[in-house]
Amino acid sequence: MHRIPANRPQFVSWAALKAQFGQGYGRMDDFRRAFIQTLRLVYGQYQSARFEISAKGMTLYHSLPPVPEA
Question: Which end of the chain is more exposed for a tag (fewer CB within 10 A), N or C?
């Protein structure tokens, strides 16, 4: 997310997220529930991540890198 331009948030639809991460899910509702649960775990480790979840998908915003540069 640190590579997303600061002035250009990136929207990803639920259909695109499911195509990339949800091959084992038949129903979109099941995938969305599991994805959001996993996203909570990820956020616990990457708290500088900036994103929004909506009924249409996920918007990603420029964020600090998950690991600071050495």
Answer: C
Q: What one-character DSSP code corresponds to residue 35?
A: H
Chain position carrying tokens 């909570």: 40
Q: In Å, what is the CA distance from 26 to each residue of 12, 29, 32?
A: 19, 9, 11
Question: pTM value?
Answer: 0.85
- Give residue-wise pLDDT tens across range 20-50: 999 999 999 999 999 999 999 999 999 999 9
Q: What are the b/e assignments for 25-61, b being 16+ CB within 10 Å?
A: eeeeeebbeebeeeeeeeeeeeeebebeeeeebbebe
